[in-house]
Amino acid sequence: MKRQITSTKLQINSNDQFFKFQTKPFRSLEIGICNLFGIWNGRHKSKTRIVLLSLIISVTFLSLVTGCGQKAPPAPWSSVVPKRIVDLEAKSREERILLEWTFPKENTDKSVLTDLSEFKILRSEGDLVGDQCRGCGEKSKVVFETKLDRKGEDKGKKMSLLFEDLEPRKVYVFQVVTLNRRGHPSSPSNPVTVFWDYPPHTTSAVKAERGDKKVDISWEPVLGATGYHIYRKGEGEEFSFQPLNREVLKVTQYSDLSVENEKRYTYSVRAVKRVVKTDIEGKGSLSLPITPTDLIPPSPPLGLVAVPLRNGIELNWRKNREADLLGYHVYRRKTGEGEFKRLNPAPLTKETYLDTEVQIGKDYDYAVTAVDNSVRKNESPLSEEVGVKYIY
Which residues of 220-244 are buried (b: 16+ CB within 10 A; e: fewer)? Predict the structure, then answer.
């Protein structure tokens, strides 16, 4: 017998074997659920069983859907390691190799790296034959390792390491591996290749000339050198690993325009020799100290005029345009005097001056100079002279 369930628009055969609960456990479950929801009715067993089946299917579906939202089990600790270093660099500094890289910030699963504990340097080597390496690619070995005591505050900072055990006519390949506190290593970093040979000789005959916020350096050429690096340090400082020049200098002179006047600087010049793809840097020259200073005075003031007034002689002139202008000095010479004498004890900040120490009927010559604010207080030459007889 078939019945139509209007609410679902679906034809279902209640006598089908699929809907009959033949075993006692299912029969008990059926009666129990019906009693719980109050839906048992002996006269409408088929309809009741259909409702019951719909309820069981709904509960099962919800269980499956809910189960799909469960999180997967966490990844094993052995797979959570520091992220691979990808910015390893190798540079030659004073007959040595400088390795530099950045401390990793994350693990491979993108979680924050908080348990970095060790670095290991791997190195393989071969013979330099022409511009090729014979034996490169062989198994690397650990040539240096260091433990880290601090916990995470160095993330994102630069690490630097110098190597001196180098032989001429060799090719070296370096990589870095990091380890966490559980001893699990990262993948090896990007490889860097160094072609090594005898470094160039030390630069000699280095000279320096100071100027206004400027130092000019020159030196003699070094035999076999393909370029030069310039280094600078201030008082109480050490030479940096990075030269002032971004590109290798091909000339034997350099102007440093990034200095301040009256500060003491020390310079060193190092020759560079190109070997295949590596610029090998020699020892630095003798340190050369120098203090840049302003030696250039302002221009003489222009447009000086003198006007007799009731209470003296007033002078006026045009304003100087120098950025480091401190002020002006006024000079006077009486008739019969050979030299000008300065009237104001300190530099004037205005382009005007009233001379009250004058006598009626006397002739006076005036001139003005400009002064800068350097330590030397550079003073310009005298302006054009102006003569006046004091009559009022």
Answer: eebeebebbbbbbbeeeeebeeebe
Closest CA to 267 of 295, 294, 248, 240: 240
CA–chain centroid gap for 371, Å, is 40
- Residue whose C-alpha is closest to residue 367's, from 326, 337, 323: 337
The string of DSSP codes covering 343-366 is --SS-BSSSEEEE----TT-EEEE
Q: Is the pLDDT of residue 200 over 80?
A: yes
List 387's β-bridge partners, or say none.
365
For tokens 């971004």, name the residue: 246
Residue-wise pLDDT tens digits, 122-180: 999 999 999 999 988 778 999 999 998 765 456 668 899 999 999 999 999 999 999 99
Q: In sequence order, which residues have a C-beta less than 8 Å from that of residue 96 and are 6 or more positions away?
A: 162, 163, 164, 166
Contact 194, 97 (CB under 8 A): yes
The closest of 19, 38, 21 to 29, measured between CA atoms, is 21
What pLDDT was estimated at residue 82?
A: 94
78-196 folds as Immunoglobulin-like (2.60.40)
String of DSSP letters for 303-335:
--EEEEETTEEEEE-PPP--TTEEEEEEEEEET
Helix (H, G, I), strand (E, B) or coil at 103: coil
CATH number of 207-290, picked from 3.30.1360.120, 2.60.40.10, 3.30.230.80, 2.40.50.140: 2.60.40.10
Print burial letters for 20-34: b (CB count within 10 Å at least 16), e (below 16).
Answer: eeeeeeeeeebeebb
